[in-house]
Amino acid sequence: xxxxxxxxxxxxxxLATPGTAKPSCETVSKRLAPCLSYIQGRxxxxxxxxxxxRGLIDISNMMKKRGDYSAVCKCIKNRLLHTNYDPKRFQIxxxxxxxxxxxxxxxxxxxx
Length: 112
Hints:
Blueprint: H1 2-16, H2 25-32, H3 36-39, H4 50-64, H5 66-79, H6 88-96
InterPro entries: Bifun_inhib/LTP/seed_sf (IPR036312), Bifunc_inhib/LTP/seed_store (IPR016140), Plant_nsLTP (IPR000528)
Organism: Solanum pennellii
Protein name: Non-specific lipid-transfer protein-like
């Protein structure tokens, strides 16, 4: 009985440990989608929408990890490859949304 309880505790510990996988581009794209009109300068307000802020906060949290910065940056660049936008809006938007980690201006020429 004690072995069974011990085995279950180990299993729960393993399942509760957060994964170390890098964020997928699909996840980054989903978080970025509500911000497209804002970063393109077509949004009717100077501040990002609530949905955009939630997305920027999630992206900011993904970029905090050193290894994930490059992966997230490349996903943003690939997602916006054929889009005209202002890279500074990532930085401005993250400051307005108080993301905790100011996003860099990720543009077409940014080195990730």
